[in-house]
Amino acid sequence: MTVTPAVVEEEPTKKGLSFKLPLDETEMGLIAGIVAAIVVVFTGLPAVIKGIALILAFLWGMDSVRKTSKYGLGTGVPSIGVLATGFGVVGALVGLALAKYGSIEGVAYPAVLVGVILMGVIGLVAGILSNHEKVIAMKIPKLERAMMELGMAGTLIILLECSIVTGSLNFNAVVNQVLNTGLIALMFIFTCFGLLHPYNACLGPDENRERTRMCSVEIVGLLCALLGFVMIILSSFSWELGSIASVTISSPWKLWNGVSLLIFGLAVWAYFFRMFIKACMDEAYETVGTGMIKTIE
Amino acid sequence: MGLIVVLLFAWMLVIAFLAFLACTFEDLESDIGSQSNPNSQVQLAAQIGQVNRFFNKAISGEPLSNAMYCATAGTIAWLLLLKLEPLVPGEEWKAAVLAIPIGVAVAAAINIIFSMSSHCGRTAAQKRFEQPIYLDVLYGHLLPIATHAFMTTFFITCIAYIQCNLGTLSGNPALNHPFALPLLGFIWGITVGAIGSSTGDVHYGAEREFQDRPFGEGKRVVYHGKITRYAGCGVRTQRDIAGFCAKFGGPITGMTFGLIILFENWRSLVGMQLGGYLPNLAASAGNSAVTWAIVMGLIIVIALAVVNYVFVRWVRKKCGPFVGV
User: Fold this and answer.
1) Among A32, A136, A281, which Cα is nearest to B125's?
2) Do A211 and B121 touch (CB under 8 A)?
3) Mutating which of B120, B130, B133 best tests the A interface, going by the most A Cβ atoms within 10 A?
4) Across the interface, do B180 and A4 touch by the CB < 8 Å criterion?
């Protein structure tokens, strides 16, 4: 029996940015970050476009979780995903609190990006502190960058989800429709799973990034379908929950946004789930109907 | 209408009973799928050459995965209740009878999706250890897992629904829980998963995996992965482990959770009653109610500690001595 190392370093990739498919981690981060940031700012966009940005942001976050956990965290993978979501919720609340500055009501909220940048800085500081000789000295390679990306991706994801459900990033609207209704629980837990499950489910020495990415997209599809369902039901209610005055800012096509997002989510999920399971079965050692286990002495 | 204190206590007992059932099924679900703690053995087995026919259900730890099922079920049920309750004014329970099972069914479907992706993904990532994907293992375990998860999520969503409407059910709507149904499902899901993970796994391991080892020996590295190989008769799969754990490990886990819920709610209610807060929710009696509740809690904790101490001493005397002490 040969003992193989649990983690195999990937062969060094090409130098510089080439933007050839499949995108490497840096290119993915750049594209996802820019696209998601633009979509977050303009909240009047159709939900399906926000869904596509959500997929990109999740792919970016998944890459950062993978980068952090690959060093040998086994049972720690879920905690990295939850950490990213925690960063995300805090960053999203900061961004929402500042959203009113320089905003065009119901159309664009550029100030929310302050939350994203703040979480990037906090993540960077956390990463430096964890790796620094004199503080925790974990000495995990690339941890600083991965933590920064986790914070930024997490914040973008939570902001995008809020923007999908409320159709705006007005603080009162989000508090009324997302926090008071408890939808934040669904968003929180699915963001966690979208970030942690792909790498956690594919963990092992023969893990490969393409397969892990398929799993990530599949979960975002599921999340989009659920959010679409939420939008369909909520589109028929005006918002007078709690003591805060009614806020009726929402995108005018809320019902159709919901229906299209539901269909988009289900289609993405079905396609990528099939692709993922097929890839697993093809790339496994063997896929057999049944069989006995190998006898060993 | 005044608050009926007896009804409040009765609903508290119902919640404790539902919690007992929920955690029983939660533990069995994680045993069938080898989630959280037992999963390390399944993951390890192939790596040290022990190819096995176990289901590798690595959906993070139990608290998170149960929080996901329960939050999903709670969200769907809450959305359906929003739509359905206005249709049956005065008889809102009819809406709940329809909404809760549908929400829970969605959660169970999501459970199947996540189970399938984690089993296939993890097995494919063990290619170099020659671990194949057995399709009969894959398909044969999905339904038992989803069924047990359905039961867990169903009971937890019922608890969350009762809590949301506790005041209305017992006479004073001011006692309704301030949190929304999805949030309560989330919190309860984390709790049920945490108890199932901490209590249930111990029994899974101690009962089933190392039954023939001396009492208190601990787990030697040489035994790792062995549990995934052979059962009393033939090749072991996890369906027989569920049958085994249903006799003791599952109910004992459920009892742990049920007792926690029972003691916790009982001491707060008794504290409220003794402090004079309960029948009319007198705000002036708040402080004395809290004091009484804390005193009751301390008494319960001390009593449990004493019982534990005596019990462990008795067990060590009867089944000991420990190996290696």
Assistant:
1) A281
2) yes
3) B120
4) no
Look-up of token digits 């190989």: B229
Interchain pair A277, B53: CB under 8 A: no
Q: With CB atoms and an 8 Å threshold, state whether B132 touches A292.
A: no
For A201, counting Cβ atoms within 10 Å of its Cβ (0-12 exposed, 13-18 middle, 19+ buried), the class is: buried
Q: Which of A 162-181 lie inside 8 A of B, CB atoms? A: 180-181
Partner residue facing A185 (CB), from B127, B133, B186:
B186
Check if the beta carbon of residue A296 is closer than 8 Å to that of residue B49: yes
Task: Classify burial at A128, counting beta carbons within 10 Å of its beta carbon; exposed 0-12, middle 13-18, buried 19 or more.
Answer: middle
Nearest by CB to residue B125, choosing from A183, A207, A237, is A207
For the record, the structure tokens of B100 come out as 């809760």
Interface of A with B in 220-259 (CB under 8 A): 222, 226, 229-230, 233-234, 236-237
Give the containing element (helix H, strand E) for B133.
strand B133-134
Q: Report the SS3 class of residue B131.
A: coil
Residue A103: pLDDT band with limits 50, 70, 90: confident
What DSSP character marks residue A160? H
CA distance A15 to B155: 55
Residue positions counted in chain B: 325
| CB–CB contact B82 A233 (8 Å) | yes
CA distance A127 to A146: 8
* Token pair 């504290």 in the structure block, residue: B271
d(CA B21, CA B192): 11
Q: Residue A204: its chain B contacts at CB < 8 A?
A: 43, 122, 124-126
Q: Does A192 touch chain B (CB under 8 A)?
A: yes
| 8 Å CB contact between A61 and A153 | yes
A223-A224-A225-A228 Cα dihedral, nearest 10 degrees: 120
Contact B192, B229 (CB under 8 A): no
Q: Tell me whether A191 touches chain B (CB under 8 Å).
A: no
pLDDT score recorded for residue B295: 93
Using only C-alpha atoms, what is the Rg of chain A?
Answer: 20
- What pLDDT was estimated at residue B255? 93
Partners of B136 on chain A (C-beta within 8 Å) are: 289-290
Q: CA–CA separation, A40 vs A158, rounded Å?
A: 10
- Looking from the CA of A281 toward its CB, the CA atoms found within 13 Å total 13
pLDDT at A110 over 60: yes
- Record the tokens describing residue B143, joined without a space: 């339904």
Question: Averaging pLDDT over each range in A214-223, B48-57, B220-229, which range is the top one?
Answer: A214-223
What is d(CA B151, CA B105) in angstroms, rounded to the nearest whole number? 10
Is the CB of A206 less than 8 angstroms away from the CB of B127?
yes
Please, where are the H alpha helices in B246-285?
249-274
Band (pLDDT 50/70/90 cuts) for residue B168 is: confident
The pLDDT confidence band at residue A241, using thresholds 50, 70 and 90, is very low
Task: Pick B134's closest partner by Cβ from A81, A212, A288.
Answer: A288
Mean of pLDDT over chain B: 86
Closest CA to B44 of B122, B154, B158, B156: B122
Query: Are B26 and B159 within 8 A, CB to CB?
Result: no
Spell A70-80 as b/e; 16+ CB within 10 A means b: beebebebbbb
Task: Judge contact between A77 and A70, C-beta under 8 A.
Answer: no
